[in-house]
Amino acid sequence: MESRHRIRVGDASDMSDVAADAVDLVVTSPPYPMIEMWDEQFAEQSPAVAAALEDGDGERAFEAMHECLDGVWNEVARVLVPGGIAAVVVGDATRTFGGRYRVYPNHARVIEAFESAGFDALPDVLWRKPTNAASKFLGSGMVPPNAYVTLEHEHVLLFRNGSANREFDPGATRRYESAYFWEERNRWFSDVWTDVRGTSQERTDEREHGDGRIPGDGQALEDEGTPGDGRALDNERTPDDERPSEETADAADPPEEAAVPGAGGAVDRERTGAYPFEIPYRLVCMHSLYGDTVLDPFLGTGTTTLAAMVAGRDSVGYELDPGMLSALGERVGDLPERSRRVVAARLDAHRRFVREARADGLTFDYEATHYDFPVRTRQERDIRLRVVDDVQRVESGERAGDVERAGADENAGDVADGETEFRVQHAPVGDVPAGDS
């Protein structure tokens, strides 16, 4: 099986080179309005944002920033297949303007925008990011009443494009091969995720939690506790964009206001808004099938693309800042090994589940078709995981044209400026011997 991954430098508010209804799933995390690191990008896109920031008007800046995102959400509604899911990871922001410290509810404004674009909001997920920061509390320390709750969670918002689910032919092979395990369903479809830590967001630091070991699977890294145990790494930098610039500032003495960004070219940020690999990988497995196309209109450093590659889906990604994509080529270099770690972790985790469940007296009525273990439900029997065999970067002029459904003319045109495509070869994994577990 081959998957194709198209990456374009450009503004996703115009995705005219993607056909209507050509995308099956959207997984993205946009720049968070009112987080200072994104001010310059929003200001360059919108004079209204720049003016509001200069005037120190937080409410006006908040709305103007979201209006920049609204154009992208409208394009998402056009390219996403009816019944397709859009998953948006977003955090709220706290900030001080004119001596007034308050929270800016990004998640609520995104929900409003998607509903206005014709989506139905579905039950969402609260991603609780464990942290071991020593000075995590805001405000007046131990003295009431002027302390503030620390934002240590983000929202995984889920929307369906229209009122009806996607439809499939009865017994569609790729749907049942794309199944997840019963115990994965129980963990993934919980409305609170505590087993995925945040990742380092320094652009110069390539270390990333989410290197293929699945949180909660019982595998330990050499320098940390078991993934999913709720403990952050001692040497991990926890993202703190949601905090005022002075973490112990009292409400009567708020942090200094952010400097208004000036005009210029692409933003050369020292930090990114990257989420860990496990977040998009989990969402891709939850809401798409082998061969589906996944879109990320705010691609950043390309984590959604990597997740789609590992999961055996096609993908399309847009990113305004080409510098953000500079590391993607290096990250895909170890894709075959990463995919093998992911698959081995999932298979080993299921085997552990079977052993522990049997020890507790649970019986299994079904045997997996392709593996040496039983499964809990009939729908899991044909599950078949895939690994990456090879990755090739397609040079300009060699790739297919617009993204279309299967059967469309795949030689419709040349590569546009600022566009790259990767082609990934996948092989199904049959019966894999149990690991160290």
TrEMBL record:
SUPFAM superfamilies: S-adenosyl-L-methionine-dependent methyltransferases. Residues 23-324 form the DNA methylase N-4/N-6 domain. InterPro entries: DNA_methylase_N4/N6 (IPR002941), MeTrfase_CN4_CS (IPR017985), RM_Methyltransferase (IPR001091), SAM-dependent_MTases_sf (IPR029063). Residues 247-256 have a biased composition (Acidic residues). One of its GO terms (biological process) is DNA restriction-modification system. Keywords: DNA-binding, Methyltransferase, Restriction system, S-adenosyl-L-methionine, Transferase. It catalyses: a 2'-deoxycytidine in DNA + S-adenosyl-L-methionine = an N(4)-methyl-2'-deoxycytidine in DNA + S-adenosyl-L-homocysteine + H(+). Residues 199-269, 396-437 are annotated as: Disordered. Residues 200-214, 231-246, 396-408 have a biased composition (Basic and acidic residues). One of its GO terms (molecular function) is site-specific DNA-methyltransferase (cytosine-N4-specific) activity. Its EC number is 2.1.1.113. The keyword Nucleotide-binding does not apply. It is an enzyme of class 2 (transferase). The keyword Transferase applies. Belongs to the N(4)/N(6)-methyltransferase family. N(4) subfamily. This is Type II methyltransferase. The lineage of its organism: Archaea, Methanobacteriati, Methanobacteriota, Stenosarchaea group, Halobacteria.
